[in-house]
Design a protein that fits this description.
It contains 9 helices and 15 strands. The chain is α/β, with parallel strands linked by helices. Strands 5-4-3-2-6-7-8-15-10-13 form a 10-stranded mixed beta sheet, sandwiched between helices. A 5-stranded mixed beta sheet has the order 1-9-14-11-12, with no helix packed on it. Helix 6 runs parallel beside helix 7. It comes from Vespula germanica.
C-alpha cells in the first residue's frame, strides 16, 4: 500500500482542476494577486474545496471578484463564499472587512512573522488546520497570476521549494489564468497531458531554479532530455512542447519547476460558458 501511495503522489493530472470529482479533496488559497480565472471555474473550485483560505490582501481580491458576479458576501447571504480562514500579517487588509468576515464565519489568523512570506505562513496554518480537523487532502490550488513584481513571483517559487517541509505529501499547484506551475521533487514523475494541449502543441518548460540538475531524463516532449544536465547560465528547457503522447515522464535528481500553458483548456471553458448563456 505504501508503494502505491508513493507512485500516486508523483502522478500529476491537470484535469483535476477542470473536472473535479467527489473523491479528490483539496484546498484553495487565494494570494494577493489579480484573480483572472473565468467565474464558472473559479466558483466551482471554491465551492467544492474542503478548505478555503484568503491571504491578507487576497481577501479583498476575492470579495471584489465576487462583486463582479453580483455576489456580496458581506451581507451574510452567501456563506459558501466565506473563507474557512484568513491569514497574513494584515498589512493589506481593511480591519472592518476582516472583522465582518469573522462575524459571518471566517477564522482570522494573524501571522506577523516577517521571516516568512504570507503564502508560506498560509501553508503552515493550513497544515495545522487539517491536522486538527483530521482532513486528508490530495491537492492545494494556489490562485496567483504570474505578473506584477518579480520579487513576489520568485518568492512564490521559493515557497514551492519550502512546501514539503511545511505540509507533506500534498500536491501544490499554482493556478494562473494561462498556466499551471508546480515543483517536481527528485524522483520519477508522470504528468497527464490533456488532448487539447497535445493537438495545439501548447508550451511547457522545466527549470532548475536554485541549483544545477545533473541527470534529467524525459519522455513525451518534443525536445526530450536524456540523462542531461541543466543549469542557469547553461541549458534550461523553456518553450518546449509535447510529442503527441498523452503523458510526459520526468526522472530528475534534483527539484525542478514544471510549468505548462493551459490557454486552450481555458478557451474551451469560455466556449462552454458562452454556449450555456446562449441556450439560456
Amino acid at each position: 500500500m505504501q508503494h502505491e501511495l508513493e507512485i500516486e503522489k508523483n502522478v500529476w493530472d491537470p484535469l483535476n482542476i477542470f473536472h473535479i470529482t467527489g473523491d479528490y479533496k483539496y484546498a484553495v488559497i487565494i494570494l494577493n494577486s489579480p484573480i483572472c480565472l473565468k467565474h464558472n471555474l473559479m466558483l466551482q473550485l471554491w465551492e467544492k474545496a474542503q478548505v478555503t483560505i484568503t491571504v491578507d490582501g487576497g481577501t479583498h481580491r476575492w470579495l471584489n471578484y465576487l462583486k463582479e458576479q453580483g455576489i456580496d458576501v458581506l451581507n451574510g447571504s452567501y456563506s459558501k463564499y466565506v473563507p474557512t480562514f484568513i491569514s497574513g500579517d494584515m498589512d493589506s487588509s481593511s480591519p472592518y472587512i476582516i472583522h465582518r468576515l469573522q462575524d459571518i464565519g471566517s477564522k482570522i489568523i494573524i501571522t506577523p512573522d516577517q521571516m516568512f512570506t504570507d503564502y508560506t505562513k498560509a501553508l503552515m496554518q493550513l497544515d495545522l488546520y487539517i491536522k486538527k480537523e483530521n482532513i486528508n487532502l490530495h491537492g492545494i490550488f494556489v490562485i496567483v497570476e504570474n505578473s506584477g513584481r518579480f520579487d513576489h513571483l520568485l518568492g512564490n517559487i521559493n515557497t514551492l521549494y519550502k512546501a514539503d517541509k511545511i505540509i507533506q505529501n500534498i500536491q501544490i499547484i499554482q493556478v494562473a489564468s494561462d498556466s499551471l506551475t508546480w515543483l517536481l521533487k527528485p524522483g520519477f514523475h508522470r504528468i497527464k497531458i490533456p488532448d487539447i494541449l497535445l493537438r495545439e502543441s501548447n508550451w511547457c518548460g522545466l527549470l532548475p531554479i536554485g541549483a544545477p540538475a545533473n541527470q534529467i531524463t524525459t519522455t513525451g516532449l518534443k525536445w526530450n532530455l536524456d540523462n542531461t544536465s541543466m543549469q542557469f547560465g547553461g541549458l534550461v528547457s523553456t518553450s518546449n512542447t509535447y510529442d503527441k503522447y498523452p503523458e510526459v515522464t520526468i526522472n530528475t535528481d534534483i527539484s525542478l519547476i514544471w510549468t505548462m500553458g493551459i490557454e486552450p483548456l481555458m478557451n474551451t471553458i469560455n466556449d462552454m460558458e458562452n454556449l450555456s448563456m446562449n441556450v439560456y
